[in-house]
Amino acid sequence: MKRSSELETPSRHRMRRTALAVPALLCALVLALLVSGIAGLWDIDVFDRSITDQVPGLRTPTLTNVMLFISAFGDAVYLWIMGPLILVALGVYRNWRALAVYSAAFVLTPIIVRLIKGWVARPRPTVDLYGGVEAFSFPSGHATNSTLIYGALALLAFMTLKGALRWSVVGVLCFLILLIAASRIYVGAHWPSDTLAGLALGGLVLCGLGMVTEYPANNRSTAFAATGLALTGPIYALLSLPAARVLYHALG
Predict the structure, then answer these.
(1) Within a 10 A sphere around the Cβ of 215, how many other Cβ atoms?
(2) Hey, CA dihedral for 60, 64, 67, 69, is it positive or negative?
(3) I want to staple 151 with a disulfide (CB 3.0 to 4.6 A). Which of 59, 66, 120, 206 is the partner?
(4) Rounded (5°) CA angle 247-144-165
(5) Residues 197/140, Cβ–Cβ less than 8 Å
(6) CB 131 within 8 A of CB 61
């Protein structure tokens, strides 16, 4: 077995860059389409309301608790816990370039999201839910940052884990990203186009990171980061649930 400090071969790196170009292009196209709707080139409100108007009929007390629990995994507070865990997993094999690039992305992406929110100034479906720049809706910070953080862990797992463990971790993380995005629509915090924009923006940044990063051939610290998520995520979500119920009291 190769040591965790050994990086992937140059040919494998080139293949990965080529493979990531396709989802990067798709993310860019989706983002461009949504931005054009925000700019008024097509009626994005019709698209959003066709979905949002169906949500109240789906709400039940049990499902609301589930969605609030899931949404907590995308909270900025918790992502600031998960981000360093992923950086530790990257840093074990002493690739300082990867650490620098990922650290910059983890710090700058939330700032970029806030700047876009303030510039677009789109009201949320539920007004007065948050204050300041967070009162604005486009794009979803939960969706953007969750895609970046959990997507980074999924990419690291795909590159460094083996067999059933690899596919289990990647599958769970991708499903979690989609659930977080859906939860933000359910709780009335975002329009569907907000979450799609967040998924696309986070995915675009993630693809860029994947293209420039060299990964180890094998790295058990990836499993450590995934285990950290499995252990701390549910605890944080449960502890934050009472405050979430107060914040989203209109859901019942």
Answers:
(1) 22
(2) negative
(3) 206
(4) 105
(5) yes
(6) no
Model confidence at 6, pLDDT cuts 50, 70, 90, reads: low
Q: Return contacts of 87-90, CB within 8 angstroms, 24+ apart.
A: 88/221, 88/224, 88/225, 89/153, 89/156, 89/219, 89/221, 89/222, 89/224, 89/225, 90/156, 90/213
Nearest partner of 130 among 189, 196, 67, judged by Cα: 189
- Residue 1 pLDDT class (50, 70, 90 cuts): very low
Tally of residues, the chain: 252
Tens digit of each residue's pLDDT (9 = 90 or more) over 175-185: 999 999 999 99
As a whole number of angstroms, the distance between CA 108 and CA 28 comes to: 18
What's phi and psi for 123, nearest 5 deg?
Answer: -65, 150
The dihedral built from the CA positions of residue 229, 232, 238 and 239, taken in this order, carries a sign that is: negative
* 119: amino acid identity, one letter: W
User: What angle is formed at CA 246 by the lines to CA 190 and CA 183, rounded to 5 degrees?
Assistant: 30
